[in-house]
Amino acid sequence: NVLYEPSPIANAGPPDRFPPDSLTPDPAAGIYIVHASQGLYALSATCTHLGCLTAWKPELGIIACPCHGSKFNRLGVKIDGPAPRPLPWLKISISDEGDLLVDRSTVVTPDQFLRT
Ligand code: FES
Questions:
Q1: Which of 63, 85, 99, 105 could crosslink 72 through cysteines, CB 3.0-4.6 Å?
Q2: CB neighbours (10 Å) of residue 43?
């Protein structure tokens, strides 16, 4: 028997899709791509409380969970609500084809910016 699992690697496409000072949700992949002044990083969009999918609120500049009201800033740091931990930073890299790859199975420390 062979068990096929979805790949933990999400292809976010060319990094120049993400303009400076932007946060781009990819709800299908369950991630956010952030382009900060230090470089690019990826956050998990899964709330660390009970696992609901969070949503970016551009008018407020925060990430909000619809389930029990947790709120996070664009670094993933919790600013309100019951979530016990920040949103994890996920490992990102550039493929041989030049696309941005997000490894949803690998959490990195929240200081690993990718410069393009
Ligand atoms: Fe997000 Fe409860 S699952 S606040």
A1: 63
A2: 26
